[in-house]
Structures are given as C-alpha cells and as structure tokens.
Amino acid sequence: MAERWRDDSAAGGSAPAPADQPPGRMRAPGGVRANLGLYIRRQAASPARYLIEQFVCGLVGWIPTIIGIGLRAVLYRLILHMDGIAAIENGVRLRFASNIHLGRGSYLDQGVYLHACPGGIHIGEGSFVMHHAELHVYNFRDLPRAGIWVGRDSLIGEFCLIRGPGGVRIGDRVYLSPGVHIYSSDHVFDDPERAFVDQGVICRGVTIEDDVWIGAQVVILDGVHIGPRSVIAAGAVVTQDVPAYSVAAGVPARVVRPLGSSQEG
User: Fold this and answer.
1) What was the pLDDT predicted at 107?
2) Nearest-angstrom CA–CA distance, 100 and 107
3) Which of 114, 126, 148, 261 would give a disulfide with 164, using CB separation of 3.0 to 4.6 Å?
4) What domains can you pick out in the chain, each with its CATH number?
5) Is there a catalytic annotation at residue 187?
6) What's the confidence (pLDDT) of residue 4?
C-alpha cells in the first residue's frame, strides 16, 4: 500500500510539513541563522556528527591511490558502519554517514555521492557503486519506509541515480547499467487549484529482486516490482511490475518475451 503524505493535515493518515520548512519553500524562515541550522540538519544526524564527519572526510577523503583507500578503510569506521574492509576512492561525498552501512568487499568509486538521511543506505557485501552514481534517501518528512538497500555482488553503474524516500530494495547480483534512474516517490497533483508542492507526495517504493539486469538509461518509477532474473532493455521507462523470467522494453515498458525464448522473429 502506498504511503501518502500531505503538507497539511486535511487527510486522514497524513503528516504535517516539517516545522522548519513550510510547503513549497526550499529555505527556512528566519534568516541566515535559521537556514544555517537547516543546512546542518540536512547534512548529518546532529551538529556534533556534522563536525566529526566533515573533519574525517576532509582529513583523508582527498588522498588518492591505494594509500588513501587504506587510510579511509581505517578512519571511516569512525563515521560509518563497515563490515571487514571496504574500498572507498578519493572524492566520495558522504552525508549522514552514521546511517551508511558498507558490506565486506564493497567498493565506492570516485565521485560517488551517498546521502543517507533517516532510513539509511546499505551496500551489500561485494557490491560496487561506480563513479558519479548518486544514492539519496531524500527523507525530509520522516517517511517510515525510506532507505536504500543493495544486496550482495550487485553493480550500480556510472551516473546512476537512486532516490529512496519510499524505499528502494535491490537484490543480489543485480546489475544497473550506466545512467539508470530509480524513483520511489511521486508528487500529488490532483488539485488544479493548488500548486503540486503544496499537495504532498505518494511513496510506494521500488523492489528489484535477484539476478536482474537493467539496461542503460532505464527509468524505473515509484511502485514498481521487478521479479527475479528479468531483463529491462536500454531506454525503457518502467511504470508497472515486471514478472520474473521476462524481458521488458519500450516506453512505457511492456513484456516482449519470456526469458529464454528466441530473440529472432
């Protein structure tokens, strides 16, 4: 069932807007001091955590080569959760690092951005996140199912974007080709008399089961469930569930054949 959150309290089961950010506004009222506080609250779990995380990242986050990877494998344990040894290249940006969990043997390439606000990001054992991929939980409304979970031995390709306010669950041995976008929320825009930013969001979440291959530049929208051992062709826009052992393609994506049948004809 979808989680529907509005920026007012008119509907049952709704949630009010955050007190520090009225609906439709990116800034907090109250001037520089209030906006500085808002900025810090959107970077770390507390001001103290912000200072610690920024200090550690500033100290060793820029160091290149295997030397930097080794230093980060030791010192980043002060700010995030790490099983065994994880390899983190220089230039990786981390926000809410206390909500990040890296499995043994996982790898973060240069330019990766992880923003793990409430809900957190879990990268499974042996999984790789390639350069300039962005994983952003984007939970500024206390959404209960927010988060991004990546299973074991999976690949998040170059320039992928994953937004997790409704929860994104990616299984084991899933390959996301370059430029895949996954969105786990949608704006409400039913009322033509109100701006969409005043109408809240719907969050259903996205699930991708084990052994799925997602082609380049695919867009996966909120509410989608992709069954195991499926293939999504490059450039598809997935708006509906994809059953197991199937190949889907097109805009919007449709199942074109069962996995294992001939590609000819």
Assistant:
1) 98
2) 13
3) 148
4) 38-258 (2.160.10.10)
5) yes
6) 53
Q: What is the pLDDT of residue 81?
A: 98
Residues 6+ apart with CB under 8 A from 259: 229, 230, 231, 245, 246, 247
pLDDT given for residue 196 in this prediction: 87
DSSP bridge pairs for 219: 181, 237
The pLDDT averaged over each successive group of 10 residues in the chain (265 residues) is 44 39 64 89 94 97 98 98 97 97 98 94 98 94 90 98 97 98 93 87 94 98 98 98 97 94 60
74, 118 Cβ separation under 8 angstroms: no
Question: For position 112, what pLDDT does the model report?
Answer: 98
Tokens 């974007």 map to which residue? 161
List of residues 6+ apart from 109 with CB closer than 8 A: 89, 92, 128, 129, 130, 131, 132, 133, 158
> Can you say whether residue 229 is alpha, beta or left, with left for phi > 0 and alpha for psi between -120 and 50 degrees?
left
Catalytic residue among 81, 181, 187, 225: 187
pTM exceeds cut of 0.85: yes
Residues 92 and 113: their CA atoms lie apart, in Å, by 6
User: How confident is the model at residue 6, as a pLDDT?
Assistant: 45
